[in-house]
Amino acid sequence: MNEARIDKWLWAARIFKTRSIAADACKNGRVMVGGTTVKPSRNVKVGETVNVRKPPVTYSFKILKTIEQRVGAKLLPEIYENVTTPDQYELLEMNRISGFVDRARGTGRPTKKDRRAMDAFVGPSLEGYGDFDFDADWDDEEE
Fold first, then answer.
1. In which band, very low, low, confident or very high, does the pLDDT at 141 lie, cut at 50, 70 and 90?
2. 67-110: per-residue pLDDT in tens?
3. What average pLDDT does range 106-134 have in this prediction?
4. What's the N-to-C CA distance of the chain in angstroms?
């Protein structure tokens, strides 16, 4: 086996969790071989370098063995060599340290700030609700 499909290899080498995710990454231009984006059906050979962009990092892998069947995690050093530059890992660490969660406004669970704003909006209208004496109001209308 001298060649393997890139989507199968990415899945078998445990770079992507499923083969369909690997194929989608290829279709969306996030996988490059030799500096050019590739389709999921492209065959890769031993010795080629595969670049995979998983924002904010671009990982680089040198293919040591072409496989199309998924293997255990202990066997991965025989399959590929991680040649990702250290500056890419620094980007990942900077993202982790910053603590900024990139999410669109209004999606997902409310933040603490959002919850406090909702409480401030709803809270005052409910205050004093238990203080109102309904019987006193009815007595006034009968007279």
1. low
2. 999 999 999 999 999 998 888 888 878 777 776 556 666 677 88
3. 72
4. 99
User: How many other C-beta atoms are found inside a 10 Å radius of the C-beta of residue 105?
Assistant: 7
**Which value, to the nearest 10 degrees, does the dihedral of the CA atoms of residues 65, 71, 77, 78 take?**
-30
**Residue 94 pLDDT:** 79
Query: Distance of alpha carbon 63 from its chain centroid, rounded?
Result: 25
Amino acid identity for residue 128 in this structure: G
Residue 57 class from Cβ within 10 Å (0-12 exposed, 13-18 middle, 19+ buried)? middle
Which pTM does this prediction carry? 0.66
Largest CA distance in the chain: 100
**3 state SS of 106:** coil
Instruction: Let me know if 50 is exposed, middle or buried by CB neighbors in 10 A (0-12, 13-18, 19+).
Output: buried
Specify burial of residue 63 (Cβ count, 10 A radius: 0-12, 13-18, 19+). buried
Structure token digits, residue 36? 């050019």
Contact 59, 15 (CB under 8 A): yes
Phi, psi of 87 (to 5 degrees): -65, -25
